[in-house]
Specification:
This protein is mostly helical. The strands form three sheets. A two-stranded parallel ribbon has the order 1-2. Strands 3-4 form a two-stranded antiparallel ribbon. It has a two-stranded antiparallel ribbon with strand order 5-6. Helix 3 runs antiparallel to helix 4, helix 3 crosses helix 7 and helix 4 packs across helix 6.
Length: about 190
């Protein structure tokens, strides 16, 4: 939907388009500087009622640079647990990466009941990066030739074990997120 993210009429039009939707999902593929304004307008317009707002884990990590440990949200929703944005990003990353990893029985949620991909030695280690996933099971749904955003999983895997919240706050964006071709922090000049 086209419109100005800072203009309330954009969100009134969105509310009208949503009609009777009970649980819309808003995927915010926008610059982090706009997150606050957009979420505020979603709430004011009634578009956030019963909805799920999806942030990319990397964007949340960058927002953590601004808010630090002082800003916390409930994660997962309904759990009563409060986390800072770095830990929320890590939790989202853990869940997303988990779709691609083998479980205790050697099966990847990504492939669901497709036995050829789960057990065949010629296929089981060839990951696909589908268009989207089933929200409850993690099974790949949609076109698997469109690596698009799911290809970011590689970056999430790399970052998952290589940075911590203190490092992010100490070194800032470049020190914490800028990596060389083998995943190590770039040398400072």
């Amino acid at each position: 939907m086209d419109g100005d993210y800072r203009d309330p009429t954009t969100f009134q039009a969105l509310r009208k388009e949503l009609k009777d939707a009970q649980r819309p999902a808003h995927y915010l593929a926008i610059p982090p500087v706009l997150f606050g304004a957009v979420v505020e307008q979603l709430v004011k317009s009634g578009c956030a009622k019963g909805s799920r707002v999806v942030f990319h884990a990397l964007a949340l990590s960058h927002l953590y640079l601004f808010y630090g440990d002082s800003f916390k949200v409930e994660c997962p929703t309904g759990s009563g647990r409060e986390m800072n944005l770095f830990h929320v990003a890590r939790e989202i990353s853990r869940r997303l990466v988990g779709i691609f990893l083998r479980d205790s029985e050697g099966r990847r949620p990504l492939y669901g009941a497709t036995e050829k991909f789960q057990t065949d030695p010629y296929w089981r280690d060839h990951l696909i990066f589908p268009e989207y996933f089933h929200g409850d099971t993690g099974v790949a749904v949609g076109a698997s030739h469109q690596t698009g955003w799911t290809g970011l999983v590689a970056e999430l895997v790399q970052l998952r074990g290589s940075i911590d919240p203190a490092q992010v706050l100490k070194e800032g964006k470049k020190g914490a997120f800028v990596r060389n071709s083998v995943g190590e922090p770039k040398e400072k000049k």
